[in-house]
Design brief:
- 34% of the residues lie in helices and 24% in strands.
- It is α/β, with parallel strands linked by helices and 197 residues long.
- It has a seven-stranded mixed β-sheet with strand order 3-2-1-4-5-7-6, with helices on both faces.
- It starts with 5 loop residues before the first helix and ends in a 12-residue tail after the last strand.
- It binds S-adenosylmethionine (SAM).
- S-adenosylmethionine binds next to helix 2 and strand 2.
């Protein structure tokens, strides 16, 4: 039986976009599973930019990609995703965020709402028409609670004539199950119209 899994669901929803994307971002590389998914399913000439603040995460991602001989396709960046504009020029077609902390590592190194929102804002401003962003948020810990709240507020305020935003969660599960947000840019209005007043 196929069971729902939030991470797999995000990948399935993005699959068709990834197939045609040229510039893709894994905003939280972690153990590299999303980077691998992006590298495996994007065109041969696509470039994936994978960010993480932890050396361990970058090394884990590199190791995973090497196993599949896909490390040439992925640029691994040890930097906060909020500095994305210092690394990428051009329109972003697909971006994935899997927020929170690295599984089996120090929980104090977790994504923070200020830098997550800053990164999200920059990616929204650089998203191609038809481009998509997935965000998986975990509201069960203190930072995650604040982060999910900030992400949801920001996404709710996006103009619906430019962006479509969906949200999915397992509503009968206890212990704050993950929440998946999907953003699609429908039209090419000016960036300023996506900025909150
Ligand atoms: C839940 S893990 C990501 C899992 C990963 N997508 C995978 O497939 O294995 C979250 C990651 O975000 C990283 N992180 C925390 N703050 C960050 C920041 N400001 N910029 C980029 N990565 C950050 C953590 O170091 C951690 O590795």
């Amino acid at each position: 039986m196929q069971t729902f899994n939030t991470i797999k669901l995000a990948q399935q929803l993005l699959f068709a976009k990834v197939n045609k994307a040229k510039i893709l971002v894994d905003a939280t590389a972690g153990n590299g599973k999303d980077s691998l998914f992006l590298a495996q399913n994007s065109p041969i000439d696509a470039i994936i930019w994978s960010f993480d603040v932890q050396q361990t995460a970058i090394l884990n991602t590199k190791e995973l990609l090497s196993k599949y001989s896909l490390d040439d396709k992925v640029k691994l960046i040890i930097d906060s995703h909020e500095n994305i504009d210092q690394h990428i020029n051009g329109k972003i077609d697909v971006a994935m965020f899997n927020l929170g902390y690295l599984p089996n590592a120090q929980h104090q190194i977790t994504t923070q709402y200020q830098s997550t929102i800053a990164a999200l804002q920059k990616i929204l401003g650089s998203l191609s028409i038809g481009g998509v962003i997935s965000i998986i948020a975990y509201s069960g810990h203190q930072e995650g609670y604040l982060e999910n709240k900030a992400v949801q507020e920001r996404l709710r305020s996006l103009p619906s004539n430019i962006f479509t935003v969906g949200c999915w969660s397992m509503i009968n599960h206890s212990n704050n199950p993950p929440i998946l947000y999907i953003v699609e840019k429908m039209r090419g209005e000016a960036y300023e119209s996506a900025t909150p007043h």
